[in-house]
Each structure stands twice: as structure tokens, then as C-alpha cells.
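pasting ABC-type quaternary amine transporter for the record, 347 residues
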Amino acid sequence: MTALTIRQLTKSFGPVQALAGVDLDVPAESLTAVLGPSGCGKTTLLRMVAGFLSPDSGTIAFGDQQVAGPGGTVPPQRRRVGYVPQEGALFPHLDVAANVTFGLPRAARRARKRVDELLDLVELDRRVATRYPHELSGGQQQRVALARALAPQPSVVLLDEPFSSLDAALRLSTARAVAQALRTAHATAVLVTHDQDEALSLADQVAVMREGRLVQVGTPDTVYSSPTDPAVAEFVGAAVLLPGTVDGQRAECALGTLTVAPGSVQGPAQLVIRPEQIQLSRDGGNGGIVARVGEVAYFGHDATVRLHLEPGGPEVVARVMGARTPDPGARVRLSVDGVVAAYPSTN
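structre below
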């Protein structure tokens, strides 16, 4: 069942076209991440779903109810949408309980049981109900904002980069708690983000946006392992792009003979290899692809290694486990694990 349907949505601001014919289906009780760089149109899309902006053309429907289109536009307050902005936007003069129940009918705002249920849902101690926003951490404020959005049991919850202002550790724990709360509440949600890790780890469906268009929509695994083009591959995670020649399911390139997926483009091609597919071993002296280790960026759990192929080959980047990081200047042998993607050559 589809909870949100968007068809051929367009929006321009003067000469700038923010959205150019967007189509998107959001399944019920799922989390869809709209992923793209700043200025690609993703926040404009979210604001139109919320009703804060009207489209120039196209339609938006919640279930079988059209809320924007040729027949008119339903105002935001009648769309049953929960909205969580970047900074939470809690009311500073209200305590947590009053913030959470703000969108409920007046008679229901005094129901402490509903407040407790929502605080439990977002993994907050019930004792924070009497605190004010300035007494909470950034992560706690975002969870309260989600509880407020969920309180009226909306058709769709919209999250506009809600974790962007948090530090790395708090961002991860808050994002996981929010995603779990949405699933526990059986909510349908759309998350706008420019963070690839956030989109891939939290969402059931990822919609990649570029210059006002959705260029790929699929599961996180599909978008990462089978990107629709090299530009998507480079945006959704790191990628090594190399020219090559494809014959059947085999490709020849600077990293040797690689395997491509059935039905891949044939002849001259651009190959996309993920850095974690490049395996390193100590130089044993015979055969294989040899490289010299250049810059090493160590992150603890893993590291990225710049490799200069010998003799005089291109530079590639590999990702290795932190405990297996080679020393700069060392000579290593390379192999590629798994299937790589192939696209028509741009030359």
C-alpha cells in the first residue's frame, strides 16, 4: 500500500527550477530518505508535501486523497502531517509535556498517559516531561520534536535534516532512536538528508535527487551496489572510476580482469569499483597488480589507502580494516573482490 504518491511535481522560483517532474511512491509504514546535495530541491519537495509551498504543476496524494493538484490545494493544518525541522523548533516557554501535546485537541493535552507513551516511544525518561527545552541536550530536543510530530498520529512524518546540528556520536544514537520510534509507531516517514551514511543505514527506500530530479529510487543495497550512473555512485559512498573494456561478463582495466553484472554495457566502458572491493596483500614478487602505498587516512575501525599503480598507472583508493593498514611507501599487490558496475564510456 502506498501512503504518499507524487507525480510530475514541478516548482520554480523565478528563473530557477527547483523541481523538474518528480515522481515518488512512499510505501505505508516505511522510511524513505531523499538524498542529495545542497540546492538539489529536496527541502522544496518536503515543504510541498507538508503544504508550506504549492507546486506549479503535478499532484501529491496521501493514500487516495489528493492534497495538491489541478483540483486545488489542501492547507497544511488539514493534511495530518507531522513535521520535524532541522533544529526541532520547540516552544521555549513550554515544558516537554506541553510541547509534545501542543498539536492535540485541547481536551487531550492534559492526558499525562499519552505524554508518557510518546516519551517511551522516543526513548526518553518520563522525568523530562517537566523540563524546558533549554534544559535538554540537542539529541533530547530532537526526540521531543519527533514525539510532538507523532502525537496526533499523522498520515506522514516529514523530517528535514533533523540531525545535522548534532555532533557525530549524538547524531548516530539519536538517528537510530528516531528510526526505531517511527517503526514502532508504524509511521510512514520521509527523511531529507545530504548524509549518505544516514540514508543508507536508516531508510527502507533511498531516493537520490540531483538538480531537481530523482535519478534513482530503490533499496539502500540496490542504490549502493547498482547505482544508475557514475555520478550516483560517487555521491552514494566513495567510488573508484576507471576506463575499461567489457566483453561478456569480463572487463579489462588497470586493475586487471574484473567481473561485471550480466547485461552490462559492452565495449569501451567506465567501471565503478567500491574502495572496499580492492583487496591488498604483501608484495610477493610475481604476477598481479602492484602498487605503492601513498597517503593513509586512519579512522580507527578502518582506513583509506591511496595506491599508485606501477609502473606509471593511475591512482586508486582502497578501504581496509584499521588493524591491517599498510605503511606509506610499502609495495602491495591488489585484487578486486566481487562484481563491479559498468557504464557507457564518456570518452
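The longest strand covers residues 2-13.
The chain is about 20% helix and 40% strand.
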